Amino acid sequence: MIAFITGASSGIGAEFARRFAEQGYDLIITGRRKEYLERVAEEIRTTYGRTVTMKLGDLSDPKHRAELTELIRSSADIDVLVNNAGHGLKKHFIEDDISNPEMLIDVHLRAAMQLMHAAIPGMTLRKRGTIINVSSIAGFAPTASDPTYGATKAFLTLFTESLHLVLHEKGITVQALCPGFTWTNFHEKLGMPKEEQLHRGILRWGTAEKVVDASMNGLRSGTVVVIPGLLNRAAMTLVTLIPRWLYYRLMKGKKLKRR
Ligand SMILES: NC(=O)c1ccc[n+]([C@@H]2O[C@H](COP(=O)([O-])OP(=O)(O)OC[C@H]3O[C@@H](n4cnc5c(N)ncnc54)[C@H](OP(=O)(O)O)[C@@H]3O)[C@@H](O)[C@H]2O)c1
């Protein structure tokens, strides 16, 4: 029993690694920061006594993705795939070099799709499997801050829901996990200091533990799109009900501040 988790060197991915190890899975974990990934691997070996294989690399690199897909295809017991790796962009699309949004598409979408495509045949044969795609509430509505991030997450959520419609018959559970603001390394990497993050918007900040709790509850209840936190769920319901012209009026020019 192996759980394959991308972006497990910190935050939500590291928490998924702990949970699946606790449930008795051996792990394959990925990330770019060697020190961070080693720390998570060591913690899991010591605490849960599971086997942890680390795969270091950048998911925007086609060679790294090819290595990972080959590993998945050749493994007979990958029962869980968590496509969690992700990041934000420092600049708005209209000010940025085109290579940055392109890389985001590679990490959020191309990597997730390639890994799922590699994992699904084995899961289908075994008639069991779980795929969790870590999306975001940012995929529910447009923002002035960053058109690419939210659009990739909207794609990922819809893609996951569409897969659910066929994979449920094959014994494969899929979930789009859509967290709101969560305390991880995510915003620091974008140059947003913690003290500023606290005062951002009406939405509360959650923890990686709570996000993974919600995901695990969602797996038990068979919820396909999981939005952790009551406030986030209420806000996303409102966002889908509110007329778009009114939403645009409220959100125009509202960018997140960066250093
Ligand atoms: N934090 C939030 O508020 C929030 C809200 C909604 C959704 N999310 C989503 O949650 C997921 C996990 O993020 P997090 O909040 O836990 O942030 P995090 O602590 O920064 O973790 C992100 C993980 O993704 C990996 N990663 C990022 N870019 C990568 C790349 N190019 N190649 C390989 N690995 C890469 C990072 O590893 P290395 O840095 O070691 O490469 C790290 O392990 C992301 O998909 C994010 O979009 C986060």
Number of beta-strand segments: 9
One letter per element, helices H and strands E, the order comes to EHEHEHEHEHEEHHEHEHH
Ranges where pLDDT stays below 50 over 5 or more residues in a row are none
Fraction of helical residues: 40-55%
Structural class: alpha/beta
Give the helix tally.
Answer: 10
Largest sheet, described in full? 7 strands, parallel
What is the typical, i.e. mean, pLDDT? 94
CATH C-level category: Alpha Beta
Rg value = 18 Å
Under CATH, the homologous superfamily reads: NAD(P)-binding Rossmann-like Domain
CATH topology: Rossmann fold
Q: Report strand %.
A: 15-25%
Distance between the termini: 44 Å
CATH architecture level-2 label: 3-Layer(aba) Sandwich
Provide the list of bound ligands, each named once: NADP nicotinamide-adenine-dinucleotide phosphate
Describe the structure.
With 259 residues, the chain is an alpha/beta fold. The chain has helices at residues 11-22, 34-48, 62-74, 99-126, 147-167, 186-189, 194-197, 208-221, 230-241, 244-251, and strands spanning 2-5, 26-31, 52-56, 78-83, 129-134, 172-177, 182-183, 206-207, 225-226. The strands form two sheets. The protein has a seven-stranded parallel sheet with strand order 3-2-1-4-5-6-9, sandwiched between helices. A two-stranded parallel sheet has the order 7-8. Helix 2 (34-48) links the parallel strand 2 (26-31) and strand 3. Helix 3 runs parallel beside helix 4 (99-126) and helix 4 runs parallel beside helix 5 (147-167). The structure holds NADP nicotinamide-adenine-dinucleotide phosphate (NAP). NADP nicotinamide-adenine-dinucleotide phosphate is lined by residues 7-13, 31-33, 36, 58-60, 84-87, 107, 134, 136, 179, 181-182, 184-186, 189.
